[in-house]
Backbone:
């Protein structure tokens, strides 16, 4: 199981077992990270902790308190957490943790083993309950490696994957494998049944009353300034990935740029410097930091077959092949710094942005008996869409949808974002209703952190203080260009696809593409990646799958590669599902 989870040369594995307790555990860590200290024992060696992820607390003061009570504790890694458990007890200990994590505590004094995870369930734990054992792992492929009967796709989850981009509720793509709910502490005791409890319930944050605007902003400012230094802590060098948007700029506005060297970088494309690159370069200059561009270009296209397979494999199929550029750029970002600080999730948490929903699916490509699963997926999504948008975002969108890309990114480096800090998310539930979906308070926070950064418009033309007519015109122009690029790429209608194909030699893409996005799969599937696409999707193994309409899938592949129709989004999913079959279900080593 551990061998299936070690993906790179800097990953290291270990195992531990106790026959008397009936427990066997394995782990994979990255060298030099917070959890590179396993297993963690207390002084009497009757409590052992296995921890994956990071904890962002007031580590120095916590360690000082533990030392005052006689514990041998250090703040740089997870080793002090076992002593925190001893002092606080199970539930209080878990409530004190802050970050994306999962783990196991084995308490030999009480004969218990407790499996736990973070409040959102972002650090996934997959599990399977057999008649004689409880199996769990951070990656589903570890279970698939040792339990052959699980090697099949769940048709309900697969319908959700094609429709919504992810499995919903606690499902996974694999039959018989579920996900541990966020905030879990599931305890096992010798001779007793599994005790399924939670140490955190979303209602604790949801039931807080909104604050007046100025009180909320003052608290937001104090909280952000207080928590951000946590994310620069630890032994690993930290780099900041910048975009042209609001949230990474907010991070830079409050970062200790005067006292720290913070290498920054942005992901760019092959046609031109996109808006993210131009603005990020200026942000870095104002903050006195270096800046690099990691380009997704010809090298990526040459490596795509391998990257696509690895993207699906590393993410347990959760991320489709459109995430392969993320694997490519994060692999290179690691050479700049092994820790990546990002503005990810800022818009989702501070402005309640819902990032996924059921999308139209070309049902003609599927066998007729599979098609009802799409309607079922849409109904499930509607049932789960909480009227309290932030609750849906934090406790459903984050673990179901955002996990997929995160799993690819964290296969290469340590990813951190202050926007899922418990203190900040708890506060976000108190936002005044009239500001829940607005950028104003975020822009104000940038100005209070660094006035020079607030003078630069965002990639959507947003400014805190500007001439209304000019600002509105710039915002409309940016929105038009964003939509034009989408229309030329993923969203190109079929009639225009044919016209564009006939004018292929004019390379009209150079006029539209690369202003906002750094990858362009419609053209790549038509041209550079067409041989690989045909090799995989026209293979008899692919066309014989029980959910496939053979003739229609063949036609879709040929129509796209000959510029008769645009099937980009469909091809993402079909290519990914076939790679799931080969890399996760049929792979023998």
Residues:
């Amino acid at each position: 199981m551990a061998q299936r989870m070690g993906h790179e040369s800097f990953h290291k594995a270990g195992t531990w077992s106790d026959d008397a307790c009936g427990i066997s555990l394995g782990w994979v860590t990255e060298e030099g990270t917070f959890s590179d200290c396993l297993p963690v024992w207390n002084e009497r060696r009757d409590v052992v902790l296995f921890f994956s992820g990071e904890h962002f607390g007031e580590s120095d003061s916590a360690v000082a308190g533990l030392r005052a009570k006689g514990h041998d504790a250090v703040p740089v890694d997870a080793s002090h957490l076992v002593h925190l458990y001893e002092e606080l007890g199970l539930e209080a200990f878990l409530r004190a943790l802050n970050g994306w994590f999962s783990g196991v505590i084995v308490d030999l004094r009480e004969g218990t083993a407790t499996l736990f995870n973070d409040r959102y369930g972002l650090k996934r734990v997959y599990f399977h309950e057999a008649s004689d054992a409880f199996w769990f792992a951070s990656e589903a492929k570890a279970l698939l490696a040792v339990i052959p009967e699980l090697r099949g796709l769940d048709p309900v989850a697969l319908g959700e994957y094609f429709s919504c981009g992810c499995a919903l509720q606690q499902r996974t793509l694999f039959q018989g494998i579920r996900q541990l709910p966020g905030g879990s502490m599931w305890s096992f005791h010798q001779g007793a049944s599994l005790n399924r409890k939670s140490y955190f319930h979303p209602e604790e944050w949801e039931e807080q009353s909104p604050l007046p605007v100025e009180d909320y902003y003052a608290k937001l400012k104090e909280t952000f300034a207080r928590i951000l230094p946590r994310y620069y802590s630890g032994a690993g060098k930290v780099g900041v990935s910048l975009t042209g948007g609001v949230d990474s700029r907010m991070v830079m506005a409050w970062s200790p740029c005067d006292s720290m060297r913070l290498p920054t970088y942005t992901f760019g494309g092959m046609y031109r410097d996109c808006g993210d690159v131009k603005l990020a370069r200026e942000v870095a200059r104002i903050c006195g930091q270096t800046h690099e561009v990691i380009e997704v270009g010809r090298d990526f296209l040459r490596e795509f077959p391998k990257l696509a397979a690895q993207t699906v494999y590393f993410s347990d199929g959760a991320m489709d092949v459109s995430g392969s550029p993320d694997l490519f750029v994060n692999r290179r970002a690691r050479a700049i710094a092994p820790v990546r600080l990002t503005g990810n999730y800022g818009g989702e948490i501070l402005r309640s942005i819902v990032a996924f929903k059921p999308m139209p699916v070309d049902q003609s490509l599927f066998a007729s008996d599979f098609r009802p699963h799409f309607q079922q997926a849409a109904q499930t999504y509607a049932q789960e869409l909480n009227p309290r948008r932030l609750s849906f975002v934090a406790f459903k969108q984050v673990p179901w949808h955002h996990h997929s890309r995160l799993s690819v990114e964290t296969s290469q480096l340590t990813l951190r974002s202050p926007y899922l800090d418990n203190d900040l998310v708890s506060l976000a539930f108190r936002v005044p209703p009239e500001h829940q979906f607005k950028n104003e308070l975020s822009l104000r926070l940038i100005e209070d952190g660094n006035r020079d950064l607030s003078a630069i418009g965002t990639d959507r033309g947003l400014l805190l203080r500007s001439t209304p007519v000019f600002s509105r015109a710039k915002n409309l122009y940016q929105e038009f260009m964003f939509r034009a690029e989408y229309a030329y790429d993923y969203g190109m209608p079929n009639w225009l696809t044919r016209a564009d194909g006939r004018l292929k030699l004019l390379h009209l893409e150079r006029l539209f593409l690369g202003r906002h996005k750094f990858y362009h799969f419609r053209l790549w599937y038509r041209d550079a990646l067409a041989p690989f696409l045909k090799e995989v999707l026209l293979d008899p193994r692919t066309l014989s799958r029980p959910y496939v309409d053979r003739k229609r899938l063949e036609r879709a592949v040929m129509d796209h590669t000959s510029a008769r129709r645009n099937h980009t989004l469909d091809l993402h999913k079909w290519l990914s599902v076939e790679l799931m079959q080969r890399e996760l279900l049929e792979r023998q080593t």
Q: What stands out?
A: The chain has a mean pLDDT of 93. The chain has three domains: 2-200, 204-458, 467-589.
